[in-house]
Amino acid sequence: MDDSDRATGSEAPATDGDGEFAFTLSELATESEVSERTIRYYQSEKLLPRPEKRGRDAVYRSDHLERICLIVDLRDRGLSLGTIRDLVTTDDPAATVAAWLGIDE
Length: 105
Prior knowledge:
By secondary structure, the chain is an alpha+beta fold. It starts with 13 loop residues before the first strand and ends with a helix. It is elongated and about 40 Å long. It is built from five helices and four strands, in the order E-E-H-H-E-E-H-H-H.
């Protein structure tokens, strides 16, 4: 999901000092169209890395959003969460997913 795909009518997420998007859990849920509960479930199942902590606040980055979009896409293609976990927890999930799906062939 790129910047042009972001929901309209809502305030844009804040950026950090490096210009990268920083989301709260609520903002991440809105941007990804996945519930907060599902995001927490993905974390507990090791599908999604834990957020950074700033004091008591959890901070999610654009890579969290990209990972959720990938998980949803693969889930919609019929892959089990166990299979998705195996694919996304490698060093280069995009290359592994492309190879597994035979996209480059």
